[in-house]
Amino acid sequence: xxxxxxxxxxxxxxxxxxxxxxxxxxxxxxxxxxxxxxxxxxxxxxxxxxxxxxxxxxxxxxxxxxxxxxxxxxxxxxxxxxxxxxxxxxxxxxxxxxxxxxxxxxxxxxxxxxxxxxxxxxxxxxxxxxxxxxxxxxxxxxxxxxxxxxxxxxxxxxxxxxxxxxxxxxxxxxxxxxxxxxxxxxxxxxxxxxxxxxxxxxxxxxxxxxxxxxxxxxxxxxxxxxxxxxxxxxxxxxxxxxxxxxxxxxxxxxxxxxxxxxxxxxxxxxxxxxxxxxxxxxxxxxxxxxxxxxxxxxxxxxxxxxxxxxxxxxxxxxxxx
Length: 321
Hints:
Elements: H1 7-29, H2 60-66, H3 68-96, H4 98-113, H5 116-125, H6 135-143, H7 148-161, H8 165-172, H9 177-185, H10 190-213, H11 225-234, H12 243-271, H13 282-288, E1 298-306, E2 311-320
Antiparallel strand pairs: 1-2
Helix pairs in contact: 1-2, 1-3, 1-12, 3-4, 3-6, 3-7, 3-10, 4-7, 6-10, 7-10, 8-9, 10-11, 10-12, 11-12
């Protein structure tokens, strides 16, 4: 596939596959449960405890291996729920127009301006104690503030598609609205939907880690890298020299976010012709005749002119962004 030739996409897939594998195998590979005393307090990294121990004597390596699964479950489940809401609301608003468009657009605008993190903290404060440890419930709550951006993008794309000839032809032959949306419009929005899903998943991951770090959710059940950051900050790991305790989950969260961002950038370059030159390798840029440094504020665009007799060299132009 052409999209897999993009280095951003390939690196993102490799990183994401590593974290998925870690979520599957991590708990079974952990020497101890996350909250089991395994040694003396504040032991440094060594053969007995690769990442050292915490103030209570918990094994940091075991906590790290157990911390990936909850974040991935919440992030991807929230991404799926938010993307489904985005598709339903955004496509419906763009296709039907009129009063439906006005109402759904107003609803999306309301959720766009809501301060997400304080809003989620308030919602969590009203939940019973037992429900704060439910990954499914957390994914649903986070998705409530993550669908509006994708809905706005899909609405604008649907407004463009609904005037196309193939959509008009489907309406003329008597196809129902839901069939036109499902079989004519949505298949043409798959790259945009995929990009929206990755963006929402990245948002959900950061939001869940932030909620755990500030103690707005149960920090011990399920265990996550946000829980490690919460306890490392509370027990003053940095002042005690236990840098691995907070560095390991911090770097892991950053790399997981990088994987999702690289996949998003790769899909963006695939669906946006104006960005395809940015996805070329150095060798590809030289072969296409594109300068590696461009005028500030201008985007390089490659246009290949071909006649019936012969193919002319690529014409390189710069257009304003």
